[in-house]
């Protein structure tokens, strides 16, 4: 549950390390080795020392502990020279919630640093976020809240701006956390693709090689759920190696010819339970090199590729060259061609090239004036059209249309029924297409001129 907005409060100064139960220290008294030794501070913070007995060091800095111990031994020794060194700092326990990948309670082990007055390298809020699996791409890192209990039972709330830390290097925003602190990362109400990319690159976000499972639906070859892993940053400098929309599209077999890449959406459910809709325009990526459009994805995202109302031939050529287009599509060419069967051709190949990929017309038998084009539509319908053939034509929807995956080109003689035996041979590897052809034949869609 989101925390209420706290009143503006200045950040606390970075204080020296204070001792408490669980710390291990070493006390050395010069030339008095029998009074020197290592001690683990009990939960109540009270040490039992030779000669002086019980002494509380709870809440004292190393320098304050040194002075307190020195004062006690000065009753028995002349000008004792005391050294206090922290050997092993105690772990602290914090809670992290909100826009992090793994909310929960975490122990943070402090990194010891030997010295008289210097304490360990104390854990900061950014380290705590990293321990919790890193922030999500929906995080509002300008308003990260830390709740801290006070001795009197009251509570202080501090707000740190980690965006300022990223942009200016203001280390005051890297607040040191204390035992019992609660960290809450709110959900951003609005963000940009550029900011999401910068957030993904922080040290307190998941690493690029962390797999992310996403759903890809719409105008892609194989809609479904995919686990996407980032690429080598040296090979993918523009994306910094992170899993992105285009990588997810490639795993889904690439986009279809009717994909509207200007209107792609990422639907993302936040930790607060709300849904964010992030528009992505991959046409801008192709045309002007806007790599921010190749948005970084995160666990649980749904990528939706809508259907374009119309696509002109120039755009189809551009899309065929995109790295998120499929490498090949499958087209069946049957009837009077040199090598009837299933051919693999690049995306957006025109019909004329599909015929040539099957060896071209069998000129002694083929009816070369026109062919039949059968298309299996995504909605389950089957469309048939007669296309006049002119090999001099460029891409043209009327006489040289762009082929789609699983299209069927039928090259006839005097009548399609005369080569029905070809179907069993040419289409044997593709049972699904053969079944569709039988259905089409059953409904009398064939002509018999």
UniProtKB/TrEMBL annotation:
Q: Which domain of life is it from?
A: Bacteria
Instruction: List UniProt keywords, sorted A-Z.
Output: Cell outer membrane, Ion transport, Lipoprotein, Membrane, Palmitate, Polysaccharide transport, Porin, Signal, Sugar transport, Transmembrane, Transmembrane beta strand, Transport
InterPro entries in the record, alphabetically? Poly_export, Poly_export_N, SLBB_dom, Soluble_ligand-bd
Q: Name one GO biological process term.
A: monoatomic ion transport
Which ranges carry the Polysaccharide export protein N-terminal domain?
12-86
Locations listed in the record:
Cell outer membrane
- Asked if the record carries the keyword Cell division, the reply is no
| Principal localisation | membrane
Q: Where is the Soluble ligand binding domain?
A: 331-383
A molecular function annotated in GO for this UniProt entry is: polysaccharide transmembrane transporter activity
Q: Does Metal-binding appear among the keywords?
A: no
Q: Which residues form the SLBB domain?
A: 94-185
The Gene Ontology CC terms held by the record are: cell outer membrane; pore complex
State the membrane topology. Answer: Multi-pass membrane protein
Membership in a protein family: Belongs to the BexD/CtrA/VexA family.
The name of this protein is: Polysaccharide biosynthesis/export protein
């Amino acid at each position: 549950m989101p925390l209420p907005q706290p009143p503006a409060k200045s950040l606390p100064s970075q204080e020296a390390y204070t001792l408490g139960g669980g710390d291990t220290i070493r006390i050395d008294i010069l030339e008095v080795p029998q009074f020197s030794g290592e001690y683990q501070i009990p939960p109540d913070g009270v040490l039992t020392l030779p000669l002086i007995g019980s002494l509380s060091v709870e809440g004292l800095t190393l320098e304050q502990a040194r002075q307190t111990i020195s004062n006690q031994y000065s009753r028995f020794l002349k000008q004792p020279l005391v050294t206090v060194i922290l050997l092993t700092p105690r772990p602290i326990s914090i809670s992290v919630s909100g826009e992090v990948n793994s909310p929960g309670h975490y122990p943070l082990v402090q990194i010891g640093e030997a010295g008289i007055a210097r304490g360990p390298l104390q854990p900061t809020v950014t380290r705590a976020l990293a321990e919790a699996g890193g922030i999500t791409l929906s995080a509002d890192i300008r308003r990260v809240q830390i709740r801290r209990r006070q001795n009197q039972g009251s509570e202080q709330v501090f707000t740190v701006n980690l965006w300022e830390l990223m942009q200016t290097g203001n280390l005051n925003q890297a607040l040191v956390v204390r035992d019992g602190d609660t960290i809450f990362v709110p959900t951003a109400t609005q963000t940009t693709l550029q900011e999401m990319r910068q957030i993904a690159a922080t040290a307190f976000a998941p690493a690029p090689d962390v797999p992310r499972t996403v759903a890809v639906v719409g105008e892609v070859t194989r809609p479904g759920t995919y686990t996407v892993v980032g690429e080598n940053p040296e090979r993918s400098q523009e994306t910094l190696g992170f899993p992105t929309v285009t990588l997810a599209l490639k795993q889904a077999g690439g986009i279809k010819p009717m994909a509207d890449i200007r209107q792609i959406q990422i639907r993302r459910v936040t930790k607060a339970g709300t849904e964010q809709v992030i528009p992505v325009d991959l046409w801008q990526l192709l045309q002007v090199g806007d790599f921010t459009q190749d948005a970084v994805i995160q666990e649980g995202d749904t990528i939706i590729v809508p259907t374009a109302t119309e696509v002109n031939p120039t755009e189809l050529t551009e899309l065929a060259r995109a790295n998120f287009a499929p490498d090949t599509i499958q087209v069946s060419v049957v009837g009077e061609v040199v090598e009837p069967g299933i051919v693999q051709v690049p995306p957006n190949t025109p019909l004329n090239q599909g015929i040539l990929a099957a060896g071209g017309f069998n000129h002694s038998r083929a009816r070369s004036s026109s062919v039949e084009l059968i298309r299996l539509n995504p909605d389950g319908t089957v469309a048939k059209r007669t296309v006049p053939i002119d090999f001099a034509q460029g891409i043209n929807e009327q006489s040289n249309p762009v082929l789609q995956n699983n299209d069927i080109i039928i090259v006839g003689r005097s009548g399609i029924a005369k080569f029905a035996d070809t179907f069993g041979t040419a289409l044997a590897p593709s049972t699904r297409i053969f079944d569709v052809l039988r259905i089409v034949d059953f409904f009398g869609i064939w002509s018999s001129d």
